[in-house]
Structure formats: C-alpha cells, structure tokens
Design a protein that fits this description.
CATH topology of the largest domain: Heat Shock Protein 90
Radius of gyration: 46 Å
Oligomer: single chain
Helix content: 40-55%
Strand order of the largest sheet: 2-1-5-4-3
Number of domains: 4
Length: 415
C-alpha cells in the first residue's frame, strides 16, 4: 500500500514539473513573440511611412509635370527604342511614340534642318560621349505640313557593367508661344535698329538738304549789295528765291507728315474737275523738265468731277511728278488717270527714267529710304504720298522695270 502511494506521489511530482516546464516554455515563447511582433510592427510602420512619402512625391511629381505641361520618356539604349511614360502636353497634335518606335523614327518627324543635329545629339548620349541632352527643334504635325516647336532634356539614368549608358530618361515640352515671342522680339529689335539707322540717315540727309539751299541763300545775299548790274542782280535774286522755295518745301514735308500722323489735320472735302487740276500741275512742271524730256497728259475723259481733299491730292501728285522728273533724263513723263471703277479713281505718273529694282519697289515708300543716296532729297516724298493716300482712304503703288522706267499710281475714293 505504501509503495503504491509512493509511486502515485512520484507521478504527481513528475506531472507537476512537466506542467511547470511547459508553462515556462510558453512564457518564454510569448515573450519572444511579443518582441518579434514589436520588431515587425516597427518595420511595417517604417515601410508605411516610406510608402506615404513615395506617394506624396509621386503626387508632387505629377503636379509639377502637369503644371509645366511636360511629357516624360525613356530610351532603351540596347534596342534603340523610345517610350513615353507620361504626357501632360495640352495639344493633341503632338508626336507620341507608339510601341516599338525607334530613335530613327523620332528623328524622321523632325524638320529637315534639325535632323542631322538631333541624330548626332542622340548618338552622343547613347554612346556615352555626353552625359546630358538638350535640344530645341521643330516636329512635324501628323498628316500636315505644319510643325511645332519642342524643347527636350535627357540624362543617363543607368549604366551597364562596362560603364556605358543602358537607360536614358528625358522630358519634352512645347514652346510655340516662347518661340513666337522670341520672333516678335527679334522683329521689334530689327525694326528698332532699322528705325535708328533711318533716323541717323534722316538727320544726315536733312542737315545736307537744309544746308545746301541755306548756304546758297546766305552766299548770294551777302554778295548782292556788291553787284551793280541789274541783270546780274535779278539773276541772284531769282537764285535766292529758288533756294527759298527748296528750303520751304523741305520744312513743309516734315510738317505735313507730322500733322497727318498726329491726326490733327482733317480732310477738307470739295468737288472739282480733276482735268483742270492735273492740267495746272502739268503746266507748272513742264518748264522744270530736263532737255529731251517731254511732259504730257493722258486723261480718260474730257471732264471728270470728283469729291475729295483737293489739297492732299495736289500734294501727292506734286511729289510723284517731282520724283519722275528727278530720275528721268530723256524720254517722257506722262500724267494721267484711268476711267473710274465704281467710286474709286486711279491717277498715275509714268516716266522713262532709271526704273526701280524689284527688291526696292516696296521699300521706296518707307520713310527716309533712298535707292540712290547721291540723288538730292530727304527720302520723305513717297512716304508722304502713302501717308496722305491712307488718310484719304486710298493707296499708292508702283510698277517698274529697271532701266526702262516706272509708273507710280495713286488710287482714292471719289465719293
């Protein structure tokens, strides 16, 4: 009986020790699991934080791309293929590579003037000769003959074991507005430079044109008291008066063009017979023609009543006649007009003078421009003609053949 009790007691102790051992092991396991879970929790928290940062950066990156209207792309150097990753350009006519688009395909859509340069730049960055790519070029719009401007940047993103580029990333953006602004600024600068040059030429011409008659007036006036013969005195007086008229004409030209452009001088409309006005002008200029030059008229009808500003019309015709006689040394100068078409009439002056080269036929109407700098004049006459014609609702132009002569016309509404 005692032996049985002893066996039972030993079994109980063994069971109790086993329970304690299992409990201790479970406790140690629970402690280990707790610390492991804390470690995993910290790692997960850190990874979630990194993911949040990446997501934030992606949102910011996408926002920048949209704000700058960029597209991003990459080049697989081994296969020579370009792939667009994102495109936030607003225009739908931009070139977008399809799957398998090669660099040669990209170059082929460029303007002919850009192809060689773009091909070399791509080769330089793909072969490692250059670290970065930056080019401005024109890209053809599909199914049209039009082009748009693009600016692209790229850099090497990954290299192979030999250190050569294997992956290139880049961005592109349309710059049509910027190029248009650059063109406008360049044109404005050129016009400003040309205007400055013309002003300098004008000052030089005007000083010469004013000084020439002024010197004659002063010179002849100073010797006039010493001249005793009546014939010689009258000749000097005539020369003084002639130079007075030249000087007044120069000043009048400058004043007239200033008044018209400022808008201070309004049109004064009157009705008159055009034939009478033209005949009076011809009578005045017939005596001023060089020997061997015949001055005549060619009217479309025996009488032509028109309503316009007679003063400005007369001023324009005077300039055209003066110009024709200045450049015609032989042959003829004809003043005429064509039959009216509707409510407009064209008056013209035709000469057999030097003629005007095609490249100068539009420029002769520019202010201060002179085809021949050695011919007297400030270069304002034809500019005044155009200004006055525009102010009357009309236009002026020229038809000319170099060495054969010119035909200047002046067309206005006649009410």
């Amino acid at each position: 009986m005692f032996a049985q009790l002893l066996v039972i007691q030993q079994n109980y102790l063994s069971t109790e020790m086993l329970v304690w051992a299992v409990g201790i092991l479970l406790l140690l396991g629970a402690i280990a699991l707790y610390f492991y879970q804390r470690k995993v929790g910290r790692e997960l928290t850190e990874e979630l934080s990194q993911l949040a940062k990446i997501q934030k950066h992606n949102i910011e990156f996408e926002f920048v791309l949209k704000a700058m209207k960029l597209c991003t792309w990459h080049i697989d150097v081994k296969d020579q293929i370009i792939i667009y990753d994102n495109d936030y350009r607003e225009r739908s006519d931009c070139f977008v590579p399809t799957e398998g688009t090669t660099l040669d395909d990209l170059v082929n859509v460029m303007a002919d003037s850009d192809k060689a340069r773009i091909r070399k730049s791509l080769e330089d960055i793909c072969t490692g000769r250059k670290e970065e790519y930056h080019e401005i070029s024109q890209v053809r719009i599909a199914h049209t003959d039009d082009y748009y401007w693009t600016e692209a940047y790229a850099t090497v993103a990954a290299r192979n074991d030999d250190g050569l580029p294997k992956y290139i990333v880049g961005t592109s953006m349309r710059i049509d507005e910027r190029k248009a602004m650059e063109t406008a600024l360049m044109e404005a600068r050129n016009k400003a430079e040309e205007s400055d040059r013309l002003k300098s030429a004008f000052i030089a011409n005007m000083s010469h044109e004013i000084r020439t008659p002024l010197n004659a007036i002063i010179g002849f006036t100073s010797v006039l008291p010493d001249v005793e013969g009546a014939e010689e005195r009258n000749e000097l007086i005539n020369l003084i008066q002639e130079n007075n008229q030249k000087l007044l004409r120069i000043v009048d030209d400058v004043i007239n063009i200033s008044k018209i452009e400022s808008g201070k001088e309004k049109l004064v409309m009157t009705t008159f017979d055009l034939n009478d006005i033209l005949q009076a002008i011809i009578s005045e200029y017939a005596s001023k023609a060089q020997d061997g030059v015949k001055v005549s008229t060619m009217f479309a009808s025996g009488s032509q009543q028109i309503t316009t500003d007679m003063s400005r019309l007369t001023e324009v015709i005077n300039h055209l006649m003066s110009n024709a006689l200045k450049f015609t040394s032989q042959g003829s100068v004809i003043l005429g007009y064509d039959s009216t078409a509707g409510k407009r009439i064209r008056i013209w002056v035709q000469d057999t003078g030097k003629g005007i080269a095609p490249e100068y036929q539009e420029r002769v109407f520019e202010r201060f421009f002179k085809v021949d700098e050695f011919i007297p004049g400030a270069g304002l006459g034809l500019s005044i003609c155009r200004t006055m014609a525009y102010s009357m609702g009309g236009d002026v132009g020229v038809e000319s053949t170099l060495g054969e002569g010119s035909k200047f016309w002046f067309e206005i509404p006649i009410r």
